[in-house]
Specification:
two-stranded antiparallel sheet; 1% strand
Length: 304
């Protein structure tokens, strides 16, 4: 690929991602009660964090996975949006003083700084519960697939190999000697589980075969690990202004990160290895999976 072709591809992907963010935000706006709906305080807090300008990587991955399986999975954006509800809930709670104690998220004050700790906790709880309400009310989906989607999202968000379990390992790992074993136990669950579930939920929604589901699961595991590696690297290399969150927080809290265990250079090499492995996982798919390949590249090459 020439430099001009690469630039054209990057521009095209940027347009695609922007369009997907708008589509997902429209769905979220329909599902989340308006700020004027009583009790107004909780709905203002929910919307404040949800519409703060996130990349929507998880729902975008779900949609791209569904379209790799089927040309027109009607209504998949509704299922995909639940991943953003869960992700935003986790960010609100992660930022609380009892956990990461952060003041900045997505370029503005965190939810508890604006609405108070009690309302931030309830806003997170509300987004969590809303995600499962949305799944239960999905149009165009039979009951069996609804149950599978609920199970997938619940497991990825839970304590055994899921997001909450990873957060527990992260908290308990602070100030411990950084080891590869602890690092993997944290990040395959804390970040990787929900990213992997994004691919699996899109595949399940579109009626994937067992072989297609296995391939997309492998892709999700690889992309999830690459995402966390780059997140850890950017926390060291970039500014708070560029990241939209407090930079250098991992080192300050003595968290177990990829740079802490492997160093920056090796961490970047590992992210590239995972990117290539993610591409390889899609070998059985045709060009309908090109979006997934592009997103894997974007995840590793991003600067924020």
């Amino acid at each position: 690929m020439t430099k001009t072709q690469a630039q054209r591809s990057q521009t095209e992907l940027s347009v695609y991602l922007s369009e997907q963010v708008q589509a997902i935000d429209q769905v979220l706006d329909q599902w989340v009660p308006a700020e004027s709906t009583d009790p107004t305080s909780i709905h203002k807090a929910m919307r404040y964090s949800l519409f703060a300008g996130g990349k929507r990587i998880r729902p975008i991955l779900a949609i791209a996975a569904a379209r790799a399986v089927s040309d027109a999975p009607n209504g998949v954006e509704n299922a995909a949006a639940t991943l953003e509800l869960i992700h935003t809930y986790s960010l609100i709670h992660d930022d609380l003083p009892a956990l990461d104690n952060d003041d900045l998220r997505r370029g503005r004050p965190t939810c508890h700084k604006v609405f108070g700790e009690a309302m931030a906790i309830l806003a997170g709880d509300s987004l969590l519960t809303l995600a499962f309400e949305v799944l239960s009310r999905l149009p165009h989906v039979d009951a069996e697939r609804k149950i599978r989607l609920v199970e997938e999202l619940a497991r990825a968000s839970g304590t055994v190999g899921g997001m909450i379990g990873g957060q527990v390992n992260d908290i308990e790992g602070e100030k411990k000697p950084p080891t590869a074993f602890l690092l993997e136990s944290i990040h395959r669950a804390k970040t990787g589980a929900l990213l992997r579930a994004s691919l699996r939920m899109g595949a399940i929604y579109a009626g994937a075969t067992p072989e297609e589901l296995a391939a997309l699961s492998e892709f999700g595991e690889r992309v999830g690990l690459a995402f966390q590696i780059i997140d850890d690297v950017l926390d060291v290399e970039e500014s708070s202004e560029k990241l939209g969150k407090t930079a250098g927080k991992d080192a300050a809290q003595q968290k177990i990160t990829f740079p802490a265990v492997y160093g920056l250079e090796r961490s970047r090499e590992m992210a590239e290895e995972e990117r290539l492995a993610a591409h390889a996982a899609l070998h059985s798919f045709d060009d309908r999976a090109d979006r997934l390949r592009q997103i894997a590249d974007f995840i590793v090459q991003r600067k924020t």
